[in-house]
Amino acid sequence: MHVGFIGLGHMGSGMAHNLLRAGHDVIVYNRSHGKAEALASAGARIAADVAEVCRNEVVITMLADDEAVTAVTFGDRKMIAALGKNAVHISMSTISVALSDRLAEVHRQAGQVYVAAPVFGRPEAAAAAQLFIIAAGDAHAVQRCQPLFDAMGQKTFVAAATPSAANLVKLSGNFMLGAVIESLGEAFALIRKSGVDPHRYLEILTGTLFSAPIYKTYGTLIADEKYQPAGFKMSLGLKDIRLALAVADAHSVPMPLASLVHDHFLAGVARGHGDSDWCRLAELSARNAGL
Ligand code: NAP
């Protein structure tokens, strides 16, 4: 397929590489130009601006947040203005339910198609085409995108016909990831302060009842105290918990644990750790324990 790709950060660069590997014709755009050049050697064409990327049947965005997606979508020579009729925008960033609903409406009014397809999996999974893709939108449109999902992920789950349902599922999942990181941080603080070897502890945890990938991945990073380079930045983690709380508020759903996790991420970012991996949250529990 002829695919445009916007956003070549930690996640997007691996995903675009995998589209090229699968034989798709890919044209890329990134706000900072250096990242796009790295893909040229793999066969990607580099677009001068957003409008040039949009001369394709499908355009994927994998950008930081609502602000970034808004910046490439609305305005002169941006996505809504530049995409052709029946062209598909696949929005794979973790964005708000409200923005996803707005994108669905404006693309519909412009005669374009909008599919939300946020992902589970860190940059290593993106590079290895092992993402879990949560897609939502018109069934025919999702089906049209399936060859691209197959190139980037290990499995696609279709959440619903309303695109923002996928964003809601993703945000609820990231709330749960944040809560697991918080609990691991508290448990490791206790273990360390009590003099038990954290790596031995991790081996016991993940070898018994806590064998899920999330405990292995984050447990290892916390046991190693390896928070740089960030696979997923704490500033983005804070953004996701904030978005989960916004939709919870809109639906009058109290989420006291999410509020606590939000405040702890906020404290981590306030301490200057916004660019560290979000599992640096564990350091906060360690410091509170006097470690
Ligand atoms: P990242 O490395 O920080 O990359 C962010 C991308 O957004 C870069 O291409 C950046 O361009 C672009 N960008 C930021 N602000 C912009 C703006 N105002 N206008 C245009 N472009 C802008 O982030 P990432 O880790 O790849 O994450 C991308 C998305 O995937 C986020 O929504 C994140 O929540 C989600 N996600 C991440 C992970 C993970 O583990 N990392 C896992 C699942 C989902 P520049 O290069 O110019 O800064």
Quick rundown:
The protein is an alpha/beta fold and 291 residues long. 55% of the residues lie in helices and 14% in strands. NADP nicotinamide-adenine-dinucleotide phosphate binds next to helix 4.
Give Rg in angstroms. 20 Å
Structural class: alpha/beta
Helix coverage percent: 55-70%
* CATH fold naming of the largest domain: Rossmann fold
Architecture overview:
The structure is a single chain. Strand 1, helix 1 and strand 2 form a beta-alpha-beta unit. The mean pLDDT is 97. Helix 9 packs across helix 12. This protein is an alpha/beta fold and 291 residues long. The chain folds into two domains: 160 residues, Rossmann fold (3-Layer(aba) Sandwich); 121 residues, N-(1-d-carboxylethyl)-l-norvaline Dehydrogenase, domain 2. Helix content is 55%, strand content 14%. A six-stranded parallel β-sheet has the order 3-2-1-4-5-6, sandwiched between helices. A three-stranded mixed β-sheet has the order 7-8-9. Bound molecules: NADP nicotinamide-adenine-dinucleotide phosphate. NADP nicotinamide-adenine-dinucleotide phosphate binds next to helix 4. The site of NADP nicotinamide-adenine-dinucleotide phosphate has 26 residues, from helix 4.
